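Hello again, I could really use a second opinion on something today. I owe you a coffee for this, so here goes:
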Amino acid sequence: MDRILVATDGSDHADRAVDLAGALAGRFGAELIVLHVVPRTALTPGERELIETEYAHELASRMHRRDPTLDPRLTPASFLDREADITEDLRGIVGARLIEAAEERAGKAGATRVRGLIAHGDPARIILQTAEGEQADAIVVGSRGLGDWRALLLGSVSHKVAQLASASVITVR
């Protein structure tokens, strides 16, 4: 086994998937690719709360770099009026932090070669495309992530990946 892909969304199941993938990568001397997929959907109530409590300053800095003519006194509440502008920024910030945490976690579990990736789009499709493009020998995913109720109706990401992947898939509970 030369390359293992693990997908993370920061959920408990994803953390356990990172732990297992890190241990496997360490045992086999494999490269571990940690992937976070940023979905292209509207902000969730939890993400709106993050804007107001955690990421207001960082989002304001990104917005001002992109458009220096913006009022420097933008407030978190005014960010929410510009949802289309900040959704990808917020998810990129959160994704980068998730990747950093997962890389550290994988290292503690035994992985010595870890590389993080962030991609945008449909999580199942991106996981499958990344596994193919990176020639992953195995894909490790959590059995349940932070997805919404639609996942229950349309099928979970882990289920889609397990059904469609050409590599071996390990689903972690």
